[in-house]
Amino acid sequence: MVVIAVGLDLVETDRFRLLYGKLDPDVLDRVFTPREQAFDGTDAERLTRLAARFAVKEAVLKTIGGLQDGISWTDVELLSDGVSTPRVSVTGGARDAAIARGISDWLISLTHGAHSAAAVALATGAAGT
Predict the structure, then answer these.
(1) CA 5 to chain centre
(2) Angle between helix 92-101 and helix 46-64 axes, rounded to 10 deg
(3) Predicted structure pTM score
(4) DSSP code at position 66
(5) DSSP string covering 33-56
(6) Alpha-carbon span 73 to 55, nearest angstrom
(7) CB contact at 8 A, 5 and 102
(8) Is 24 left (phi over 0), alpha (psi -120 to 50) or beta?
(9) How confident is the model over 12-26, as pLDDT tens digits?
(10) Which of 39, 44, 50, 104 gives 20 to 30 Å between its CA and that of 82?
(11) What are the b/e assignments for 34-55, b being 16+ CB within 10 Å?
């Protein structure tokens, strides 16, 4: 396994609240999968956790060249049960872009606090790709 790329993103939660704070289903559905939305529940911390998921999406997208034609936000999904190490599932155009770069997996780290959420994505692949 070799490191192919590193992505980092920081989301200011106040700005995120302005963009997503109304919890408009149409807006949320364009960015987050149903599974991502369901896991985050409905309590007061939901937007903070969604901001962290958004940071993961941005960090992963940075490892594959960004949000290009043929790639949607929902092509990158954070899989986390709140206990195990978070994982990323990449489908559609994002998967195609990852394969083209030789990326087969990501190591993810995320965090969030009162004012910000951040994520790092370490893209890896087989040696010699």
Answers:
(1) 15
(2) 40
(3) 0.91
(4) S
(5) -HHHHHHT-SSTTHHHHHHHHHHH
(6) 11
(7) no
(8) beta
(9) 988 988 888 777 778
(10) 104
(11) eebbebbeeeeeebbbbbbbbb
Q: Per-residue pLDDT tens for 38-85?
A: 865 666 678 888 999 999 999 999 999 999 889 999 999 999 877 888
> Could you give the 3-state DSSP secondary structure of residue 65?
coil
Which residue from 83, 99, 92, 78 is spatially nearest to 33, judged by alpha carbons?
78
Q: How far apart are CA 29 and CA 82, in angstroms?
A: 21
Rounded Cα–Cα distance for residues 60 and 74 (Å): 12
**Cβ neighbours, 10 Å, residue 8:** 15
- Per the listing, tokens 């700005």 go with 15
Provide the residue count of the chain.
129
d(CA 80, CA 47): 16
The phi and psi torsions of 112 (rounded to 5 degrees) equal -150, 150
Other CB atoms within 10 A of residue 23 CB:
12
